[in-house]
Specification:
The structure holds two protein chains of two kinds.
Chain A (H helix, E strand, L loop, with lengths): L10 E7 L5 H11 L3 E6 L15 E4 L1 H8 L12 H7 L4 E5 L3 E3 L10 H10 L34 E10 L5 H6 L12 E3 L12 E5 H4 L21 H15 L3 E11 L5 H6 L3 H15 L9 H16 L4 H20 L9
Parallel strand pairs in A: 1-2, 1-4, 2-3, 6-9
Antiparallel strand pairs in A: 4-8, 5-9, 6-8, 7-9
Chain B lengths: L11 E7 L6 H8 L3 E6 L14 E5 L1 H8 L15 H6 L4 E5 L3 E2 L11 H10 L34 E10 L5 H6 L12 E3 L12 E5 H4 L18 H16 L2 E11 L5 H24 L9 H16 L4 H20 L14
Parallel strand pairs in B: 1-2, 1-4, 2-3, 6-9
Antiparallel strand pairs in B: 4-8, 5-9, 6-8, 7-9
Classes of the chains: A alpha/beta, B alpha/beta.
C-alpha cells in the first residue's frame, strides 16, 4: 500500500525566538531546515533585535505584525505561547516546531539525526491506535504487525500529531529535575509508536510536528499559569492543548505518535529557582486528568474546531468552578477557534 | 548506585514446554541454573526428554497431566505448546518465567549478553503506570522518570502482573506475513520497557514472558489448541486478551519491551497458516468482544473475573463457532483445576520431584 510522500513545500518549520541571536541555533539545524520555509516568531517580550543568519527562506513576525494580523484578542501571544501565532499564519499543511534551545541529536557514531525527516515520516505513515503492536510502528522498515494483530486494523488511521523526545535535558517538571540535578537522558529509544485510543499523555511542545489543516485548531495557547515564565518548567500550555488534541484525535479516529525523533536539549534554567515560585501546574493537572477521561464528544462534532468548542463548554462548566484559570482557558479556546477561522487559511476538513 | 536486582531464586519457576530436546538450556545455564524448572513435555509421552545435567527440575508428560488432573485434563491442550499452562498450575512459586525451547541469549547493541530473566524481574518488581502514558516509557528504569505534566497522584503506579519480552532475529509474525516476508529479521533493539495503557489490548506472545502467579496466574490459561482443535497459534493471544481485560479491571499493570531474547527458529509458514487460518477470521470478532468486555464490581478475584469472562465467551462467541462453547467450558474447568491444585495456603509447599 502506498503512502503519498510529503513534499518540502507542504511543510513550515515554526520557530519561536526567545533569544535574540538565532545564529548558532539555525546553523546547527541548517542541514535539516534549509529545504523548508521557516516561520520565525519573535517573542514580543524580547526587546533586542533578532539576528538571523543568511540563506534561510523565512518570514519573520514581530510584535507589530502580530498586533496587525490578530487585531484585538484576549489571547496573550507571548513567551512560549507566541509560537501558536505561527500556526495561525502558516499556509502549509504540515508544521514542524522545535524549541530554540534544542539542536540536532547525534547517534553513537556522531551522525546527526534528521528530526524533521523523522517527523515527516511519522506523519506520512498511518497510526494504529486501536490495538497495540508490540513491535511498535509497523510501517517502519524492518518491522511489521505481529501475530495476533487483527487484519481489519492494519490499514491504520491518519497520523496527525508526531511527538518527539529529548536527549540530555529531558522534559521533566521542576521538582523532578531539582531532585535529580545531574540526571540527563542518555537513552536513545529507537522506536516510534502510536499512543493508543483513550490513553492520555502529556504533550511536550518542545519537539512536535502536526497536520495543521486537520488538528491545528486543537493546538492552542489555552491554559496559562499566573506565574508562567520563560522556562519550560513554568508552563503547562502545551500539556493542556495536547490533552485536548488527543481527545479530539480519539473522537475523530486520528492518530498520535510518540517516540523518535529526538533532539538534544541544552542546559537552561535552574529547576530549584523555579521551585521557589508557586507551582500551580502540578495542582491543576490533578483536576485535568479525571476531566479529560470523562469527556465525550457528540457525533455532530466532525472537525477539530467543533470539538474544541464542545470541550471549551465542558471546561467552563466543570472545571471553571475549580479554578478561575480553567475558565480563562475555556475562553481562550473559544477565542482561538474564532482566530483560526478568521486568520488561518483553511476551511474545516473532516477527520480523514 | 543502582541496587542489585534480587535473584528471586526461591520465588520464581521457569516453565518450558518441549517436544524435542532441551539443548538450548546450555546457553542459558549461567542465568537459569539457580532456578527450579518445570518442564512440560508435549507429544509422545514415551519419548525421553534429555535435560542437561545440573538443573533442578520437575517434568510432566501427558500421562502425568492425565493422572494429576483426571477428567479435568481435558482443558490442557495436546500437541501444542499451549500445554505449558499446566506448568503454571502446578508451580508453587510466586513468579513464572516461560520461554520457548528455540529461544537463546541475545546480545545488546554493545555486544553484551542480555540476562533476560534479570530484566523481567526488574520489570515485575517495579510498578506499572497504565492510567497515563509516560513519553519516556518506564519511569522506574534507571535514568528515566515521569515527564512534565504527569499527574503526581498517578506516580505511585500499580503492581505489575505481567512482563512481556520481545525477540530479535525471527520476529513473531503470523503466517501470511511470514509468507510475504520470509527473510525479514528483527534487528532493531528498542531500549524501552513500557506499560500498556488501561483499555488497550495487545497480542501477548508466550515465547518470553514473566508473570506474577499470585496476581494473575488463574487468567493465564492458554486455551484449547492443537490436536483435536480447529485452531492453533492463538494460545498466548487468547490468554493475553483475557489477562489484559482482567488486569485493567483489577488495577494491575502489564509491561512490554525489554528483555530481548534471540529467536532462532522460523516455523513453517504453510503449517502455521493451516493452524491460524480460522483464527485470522475469528480474531476480527474476538477483538471487539474483548474490547467491549466489562466485568462486574463483584468480581474481585482473578478466578471470579475469569469465570465471568467465560460466561460472556459462551454467550457472545459461541455463535461464531461451537469451538467457543467448548472453550468457555474449558475455561471453567481450568479454574476448578487451578483452585484444586492451589488451595489457599498457609505454609509453603515443596516443589514436585523430578522424574
Amino acid at each position: 500500500m502506498s503512502h503519498p510522500i510529503i513534499k518540502d513545500d507542504e511543510v513550515d518549520v515554526v520557530i519561536l525566538a526567545t533569544q535574540p541571536d538565532l545564529t548558532s541555533f539555525l546553523e546547527e539545524w541548517r542541514p535539516m531546515f534549509s529545504r523548508y520555509h521557516l516561520i520565525i516568531i519573535k517573542d514580543p517580550d524580547m526587546q533586542k533585535d533578532l539576528k538571523i543568519p543568511e540563506g534561510f527562506n523565512h518570514d519573520l513576525y514581530m510584535k507589530s505584525d502580530m498586533d496587525r494580523i490578530l487585531g484585538s484578542t484576549s489571547i496573550r501571544f507571548s513567551g512560549y505561547s507566541c509560537r501558536y501565532f505561527g500556526y495561525l499564519v502558516s499556509r502549509k499543511k504540515y508544521i514542524v516546531t522545535v524549541d530554540d534551545d534544542c539542536v540536532p541529536a547525534k547517534d553513537g557514531r556522531g551522525f546527526l539525526f534528521d528530526a524533521v525527516a523523522q517527523h515527516i515520516s511519522n506523519l506520512r505513515f498511518p497510526a494504529t491506535p486501536f490495538f497495540f503492536n508490540t513491535l511498535y510502528d509497523p510501517y517502519q522498515k524492518g518491522a511489521d504487525f505481529v501475530r495476533g494483530y487483527p487484519f481489519s486494523l492494519r490499514n491504520g488511521v491518519k497520523c496527525v500529531l508526531s511527538c518527539g523526545l529529548w536527549l540530555n535535558l529531558a522534559d521533566y517538571d521542576a521538582p523532578t529535575q531539582a531532585l535529580k540535578p545531574d540526571e540527563r537522558n542518555s537513552r536513545y529509544v529507537d522506536a516510534v509508536l502510536t499512543v493508543p485510543l483513550k490513553a492520555m499523555m502529556p504533550l511536550s511542545g518542545i519537539n512536535i510536528a502536526f497536520d495543521r489543516e486537520v488538528i491545528g485548531p486543537a493546538l492552542f495557547p489555552g491554559l496559562r499559569l499566573a506565574g508562567e515564565g520563560k522556562q519550560r518548567w513554568e508552563t503547562i500550555e502545551d500539556i493542556w492543548c495536547g490533552m485536548c488534541a488527543k481527545v479530539v484525535c480519539d473522537h475523530l479516529s486520528l492518530g498520535v505518535k510518540s517516540g523518535t525523533p529526538y533532539v538534544w536539549r541544552k542546559e537552561t534554567g535552574n529547576a530549584i529557582e523555579t521551585l521557589k515560585k508557586e507551582w500551580q501546574g502540578m495542582k491543576l493537572m490533578e483536576e485535568v486528568v479525571p476531566f479529560f477521561q470523562s469527556v465525550k464528544l457528540p457525533e455532530t462534532a466532525v472537525v477539530a474546531e467543533d470539538c474544541v468548542l464542545e470541550i471549551a463548554t465542558m471546561v467552563k462548566k466543570r472545571l471553571g468552578p475549580v479554578d478561575p484559570l480553567f475558565g480563562q482557558a475555556a475562553d481562550a479556546m473559544v477565542e482561538w477557534v474564532r482566530l483560526w477561522k478568521a486568520v488561518a487559511s483553511v476551511s474545516p476538513t473532516p477527520g480523514v | 548506585m543502582a541496587e542489585a536486582t534480587p535473584l528471586l531464586k526461591d520465588e520464581l519457576d521457569i516453565v518450558i514446554p518441549t517436544i524435542r530436546n532441551l539443548d538450548f538450556l546450555e546457553m542459558w545455564r549461567p542465568y537459569f541454573q539457580p532456578y527450579h524448572m518445570i518442564i512440560v513435555q508435549d507429544g509422545d509421552p514415551s519419548k525421553v526428554i534429555k535435560v542437561p545435567e545440573g538443573f533442578d527440575y520437575e517434568l510432566y508428560n501427558r500421562n502425568d497431566i492425565n493422572k494429576i488432573l483426571g477428567p479435568k485434563a481435558s482443558c490442557i491442550s495436546f500437541k501444542d505448546s499451549a500445554c505449558r499452562c499446566f506448568g503454571y498450575m502446578v508451580s508453587k512459586k510466586k513468579y513464572i518465567f516461560t520461554i520457548d525451547d528455540d529461544c537463546f541469549v541475545a546480545k545488546d547493541p554493545s555486544g553484551k549478553e542480555i540476562n533476560a530473566l534479570s530484566q523481567h524481574i526488574k520489570n515485575i518488581l517495579s510498578p506499572s503506570s497504565p492510567y497515563f502514558f509516560n513519553t519516556l516509557y518506564d519511569p522506574f528504569r534507571e535514568g528515566a522518570d515521569y515527564v512534565r505534566g504527569y499527574p503526581f497522584s498517578l506516580r505511585e503506579g500499580v503492581p505489575t502482573a505481567v512482563s512481556h519480552g520481545l525477540w530479535l532475529n525471527i520476529p513473531d509474525y503470523d503466517a501470511p506475513t511470514q509468507l510475504v516476508k520470509p527473510l525479514e529479521k528483527n534487528t532493531r533493539y528498542v531500549d524501552a520497557v513500557m506499560t500498556i495503557p488501561k483499555g488497550t489490548l495487545f497480542p501477548m506472545c508466550g515465547m518470553n514472558l514473566t508473570f506474577d502467579r499470585d496476581l494473575i496466574g488463574p487468567a493465564m490459561y492458554f486455551g484449547l489448541m492443537g490436536d483435536g482443535q480447529p485452531i492453533g497459534r492463538y494460545d498466548d493471544m487468547w490468554a493475553g486478551w483475557c489477562v489484559k481485560v482482567i488486569c485493567d479491571h483489577l488495577g494491575l499493570g502489564v509491561k512490554t519491551g525489554l528483555p530481548y531474547i534471540w529467536h532462532s527458529k522460523a516455523s513453517n509458514p504453510f503449517v502455521n497458516l493451516k493452524k491460524e487460518y480460522k483464527g485470522i477470521f475469528w480474531q476480527e470478532e474476538i477483538i471487539p468482544f474483548f474490547q467491549a468486555a466489562t466485568l462486574s464490581k463483584e468480581a474481585i478475584t482473578v478466578q471470579q473475573c475469569y469465570i465471568e469472562l467465560s460466561k460472556q465467551v459462551k454467550e457472545k462467541l459461541s455463535k461464531l463457532d461451537p469451538y467457543f462453547d467448548k472453550l468457555a467450558d474449558a475455561m471453567v474447568t481450568w479454574i476448578e483445576a487451578w483452585d484444586e491444585l492451589n488451595p489457599p495456603k498457609k505454609t509453603k509447599l515443596p516443589n514436585g520431584t523430578a522424574k
